Protein backbone atom coordinates (compact mmCIF):
# COMPACT_ATOMS: atom_id res chain seq x y z
CA UNK A 1 0.00 0.00 0.00
CA UNK A 2 2.86 2.36 0.82
CA UNK A 3 4.45 1.74 -2.57
CA UNK A 4 1.21 2.62 -4.35
CA UNK A 5 0.78 5.73 -2.20
CA UNK A 6 4.33 6.81 -3.04
CA UNK A 7 3.65 6.45 -6.78
CA UNK A 8 0.30 8.23 -6.67
CA UNK A 9 0.13 11.66 -5.13
CA UNK A 10 -2.60 12.28 -2.57
CA UNK A 11 -3.76 8.63 -2.50
CA UNK A 12 -5.26 7.70 0.84
CA UNK A 13 -3.57 4.52 2.20
CA UNK A 14 -6.95 3.16 3.37
CA UNK A 15 -8.34 3.52 -0.14
CA UNK A 16 -5.29 1.72 -1.56
CA UNK A 17 -5.66 -1.10 0.97
CA UNK A 18 -9.34 -1.46 0.08
CA UNK A 19 -8.50 -1.72 -3.62
CA UNK A 20 -5.75 -4.25 -2.85
CA UNK A 21 -8.16 -6.33 -0.75
CA UNK A 22 -10.65 -6.37 -3.64
CA UNK A 23 -8.00 -7.43 -6.14
CA UNK A 24 -6.57 -10.11 -3.83
CA UNK A 25 -10.09 -11.44 -3.23
CA UNK A 26 -10.69 -11.54 -6.96
CA UNK A 27 -7.41 -13.31 -7.62
CA UNK A 28 -7.81 -15.90 -4.85
CA UNK A 29 -11.55 -16.49 -5.25
CA UNK A 30 -11.35 -19.16 -7.95
CA UNK A 31 -8.84 -21.23 -5.99
CA UNK A 32 -10.16 -21.20 -2.42
CA UNK A 33 -13.59 -22.31 -1.30
CA UNK A 34 -15.62 -22.21 1.87
CA UNK A 35 -17.64 -25.38 2.40
CA UNK A 36 -19.95 -25.23 5.40
CA UNK A 37 -21.31 -28.67 6.39
CA UNK A 38 -24.22 -29.66 4.15
CA UNK A 39 -23.67 -26.78 1.72
CA UNK A 40 -22.14 -26.55 -1.73
CA UNK A 41 -18.64 -25.06 -1.92
CA UNK A 42 -18.61 -21.29 -2.36
CA UNK A 43 -15.60 -19.29 -3.62
CA UNK A 44 -14.21 -16.88 -1.07
CA UNK A 45 -14.75 -13.20 -1.67
CA UNK A 46 -14.48 -9.90 0.12
CA UNK A 47 -17.06 -7.34 -0.90
CA UNK A 48 -15.61 -3.87 -0.58
CA UNK A 49 -16.89 -0.41 -1.26
CA UNK A 50 -14.66 2.61 -0.98
CA UNK A 51 -16.23 6.05 -1.24
CA UNK A 52 -13.75 8.83 -1.83
CA UNK A 53 -14.31 12.39 -2.91
CA UNK A 54 -13.39 13.82 -6.28
CA UNK A 55 -9.69 14.50 -6.79
CA UNK A 56 -8.42 11.84 -4.38
CA UNK A 57 -6.62 9.70 -7.01
CA UNK A 58 -9.19 6.95 -7.36
CA UNK A 59 -8.53 6.34 -11.05
CA UNK A 60 -4.72 6.25 -10.88
CA UNK A 61 -4.83 3.86 -7.91
CA UNK A 62 -7.48 1.73 -9.61
CA UNK A 63 -5.49 1.59 -12.86
CA UNK A 64 -2.31 0.61 -11.03
CA UNK A 65 -3.85 -1.99 -8.73
CA UNK A 66 -5.97 -3.63 -11.43
CA UNK A 67 -3.03 -4.31 -13.77
CA UNK A 68 -2.43 -7.94 -12.63
CA UNK A 69 -6.11 -8.76 -13.21
CA UNK A 70 -6.00 -7.15 -16.64
CA UNK A 71 -2.89 -9.21 -17.51
CA UNK A 72 -4.69 -12.34 -16.34
CA UNK A 73 -7.75 -11.42 -18.44
CA UNK A 74 -5.58 -10.96 -21.53
CA UNK A 75 -3.86 -14.31 -20.88
CA UNK A 76 -7.31 -15.91 -20.46
CA UNK A 77 -8.31 -14.67 -23.90
CA UNK A 78 -5.17 -16.19 -25.42
CA UNK A 79 -5.84 -19.52 -23.63
CA UNK A 80 -9.46 -19.42 -24.79
CA UNK A 81 -8.42 -18.90 -28.42
CA UNK A 82 -6.03 -21.88 -28.14
CA UNK A 83 -8.72 -24.04 -26.52
CA UNK A 84 -11.21 -23.00 -29.20
CA UNK A 85 -8.79 -24.02 -31.97
CA UNK A 86 -8.23 -27.38 -30.24
CA UNK A 87 -12.00 -27.82 -29.88
CA UNK A 88 -12.57 -27.15 -33.60
CA UNK A 89 -9.86 -29.70 -34.44
CA UNK A 90 -11.56 -32.26 -32.16
CA UNK A 91 -14.90 -31.59 -33.87
CA UNK A 92 -13.34 -32.08 -37.30
CA UNK A 93 -11.69 -35.31 -36.17
CA UNK A 94 -14.95 -36.53 -34.62
CA UNK A 95 -16.88 -35.67 -37.79
CA UNK A 96 -14.43 -37.71 -39.85
CA UNK A 97 -14.68 -40.65 -37.42
CA UNK A 98 -18.50 -40.53 -37.62
CA UNK A 99 -18.39 -40.54 -41.44
CA UNK A 100 -15.97 -43.47 -41.48
CA UNK A 101 -18.08 -45.48 -39.02
CA UNK A 102 -21.32 -44.74 -40.92
CA UNK A 103 -19.68 -45.85 -44.15
CA UNK A 104 -18.51 -49.05 -42.41
CA UNK A 105 -22.05 -49.73 -41.13
CA UNK A 106 -23.46 -49.23 -44.64
CA UNK A 107 -20.77 -51.49 -46.14
CA UNK A 108 -21.43 -54.25 -43.60
CA UNK A 109 -25.19 -54.05 -44.10
CA UNK A 110 -24.76 -54.33 -47.87
CA UNK A 111 -22.67 -57.48 -47.36
CA UNK A 112 -25.06 -58.79 -44.68
CA UNK A 113 -22.28 -58.76 -42.07
CA UNK A 114 -22.73 -58.11 -38.36
CA UNK A 115 -22.33 -54.44 -37.59
CA UNK A 116 -23.35 -54.29 -33.93
CA UNK A 117 -19.92 -53.39 -32.60
CA UNK A 118 -19.46 -50.61 -35.19
CA UNK A 119 -22.94 -49.23 -34.39
CA UNK A 120 -22.07 -49.35 -30.67
CA UNK A 121 -18.85 -47.45 -31.35
CA UNK A 122 -20.81 -44.91 -33.41
CA UNK A 123 -23.40 -44.52 -30.62
CA UNK A 124 -20.62 -44.02 -28.04
CA UNK A 125 -18.99 -41.42 -30.28
CA UNK A 126 -22.30 -39.59 -30.71
CA UNK A 127 -22.96 -39.74 -26.97
CA UNK A 128 -19.58 -38.25 -25.99
CA UNK A 129 -19.54 -34.99 -27.92
CA UNK A 130 -16.89 -32.52 -26.80
CA UNK A 131 -18.13 -29.39 -25.08
CA UNK A 132 -17.06 -26.02 -26.45
CA UNK A 133 -14.76 -23.94 -24.28
CA UNK A 134 -16.16 -20.83 -22.63
CA UNK A 135 -14.48 -17.51 -22.21
CA UNK A 136 -15.17 -16.58 -18.61
CA UNK A 137 -13.84 -13.13 -17.87
CA UNK A 138 -14.23 -12.64 -14.12
CA UNK A 139 -14.01 -8.87 -14.29
CA UNK A 140 -17.18 -7.04 -15.31
CA UNK A 141 -17.83 -3.34 -15.40
CA UNK A 142 -21.22 -3.23 -17.07
CA UNK A 143 -23.21 -6.45 -17.36
CA UNK A 144 -26.90 -7.16 -17.72
CA UNK A 145 -28.91 -10.00 -16.21
CA UNK A 146 -28.72 -12.21 -19.30
CA UNK A 147 -24.94 -11.74 -19.50
CA UNK A 148 -24.59 -12.54 -15.82
CA UNK A 149 -26.67 -15.73 -16.09
CA UNK A 150 -24.61 -16.83 -19.11
CA UNK A 151 -21.39 -15.99 -17.26
CA UNK A 152 -22.34 -17.88 -14.10
CA UNK A 153 -23.55 -21.11 -15.69
CA UNK A 154 -20.99 -23.61 -14.54
CA UNK A 155 -19.30 -24.76 -11.41
CA UNK A 156 -18.37 -22.14 -8.80
CA UNK A 157 -18.21 -19.32 -11.31
CA UNK A 158 -17.93 -15.74 -10.12
CA UNK A 159 -17.94 -12.21 -11.46
CA UNK A 160 -15.93 -9.35 -10.02
CA UNK A 161 -17.40 -5.87 -10.29
CA UNK A 162 -14.35 -3.63 -10.06
CA UNK A 163 -14.64 -0.02 -11.09
CA UNK A 164 -13.26 3.32 -10.04
CA UNK A 165 -16.56 5.02 -10.78
CA UNK A 166 -19.44 4.23 -8.45
CA UNK A 167 -21.93 5.58 -10.96
CA UNK A 168 -21.11 2.67 -13.32
CA UNK A 169 -21.77 0.21 -10.53
CA UNK A 170 -24.97 1.73 -9.19
CA UNK A 171 -26.42 2.57 -12.62
CA UNK A 172 -26.01 -1.06 -13.71
CA UNK A 173 -29.44 -2.66 -14.36
CA UNK A 174 -28.56 -5.44 -11.89
CA UNK A 175 -28.39 -2.92 -9.07
CA UNK A 176 -31.86 -1.50 -9.66
CA UNK A 177 -34.43 -3.10 -7.37
CA UNK A 178 -38.14 -2.34 -7.56
CA UNK A 179 -39.49 -0.63 -4.45
Descriptive report:
The protein is mainly α. It has seven helices and four strands. The chain has helices at residues 2-7, 13-28, 58-65, 67-110, 116-127, 145-152, 166-170; strands at residues 33-34, 42-43, 139-140, 160-161. The protein has a two-stranded antiparallel ribbon with strand order 1-2. A two-stranded parallel ribbon has the order 3-4. A hairpin with a 7-residue loop joins β1 and β2. α2 packs parallel to α3 (58-65) and α4 packs antiparallel against α5.
How are the secondary structure elements laid out?
Blueprint: H1 2-7, H2 13-28, E1 33-34, E2 42-43, H3 58-65, H4 67-110, H5 116-127, E3 139-140, H6 145-152, E4 160-161, H7 166-170
Parallel strand pairs: 3-4
Antiparallel strand pairs: 1-2
Helix pairs in contact: 2-3, 4-5
H/E series: HHEEHHHEHEH
Please summarize the sheet with the most strands: 2 strands, antiparallel
Mean pLDDT, as a whole number? 78
The protein's oligomeric status is single chain
Shape: elongated
- Report the structural category: mainly alpha
Ends apart, CA distance between termini: 40 Å
Give the percentage of residues in beta strands.
under 5%
Q: Order of strands across the biggest sheet?
A: 1-2
Helical residue percent band: 55-70%
Radius of gyration: 25 Å
Q: Helical segment tally?
A: 7
